[in-house]
Hints:
7-stranded antiparallel sheet; 3 helices; 9 strands; 28% helix
Amino acid sequence: xxxxxxxxxALAFLSLTQAATAEPLTYTNERFGxxxxxxxxxxxxxxxxxENGDGLxxxxxxxxxxxxxxxYNALDETPRSRQATAKAAxxxxxxxxxxxxxxxxxxGFEGNVVFYERYLFGASGTVHGLVxxxxxxxxxxxxxxxxxxxxxxxxx
Length: 156
């Protein structure tokens, strides 16, 4: 009986280890070179790509979404000008915003949804973006992932 118990414990541990080490997915947009890495075991449902090929969006089973995209900086925005526009819009409850020389982070609430946005302003006149949204009720799950996903955002 003891060898069966040891085998059961070993199998249980193996299944937990595999779940905890699920392979991340790195998406790279061909049009703008925007890339980011995220847990593929959470964001499992890739949505239809837009016709212009600017990025992709993934959904999770529990209502979260992750969009990774690039765009031309047609309005010649800076991190600070986009930050000012977001603050002035007043459409969302902006609880955090910080801008650097070539980056911007915006975070807050849209009703019962948490949003986190990160933008990198590329030297080639492009903006690389990441938008993560999830229900407030899942903050404990997504808050620890947000920083890891956001810091993986890259662009030429």
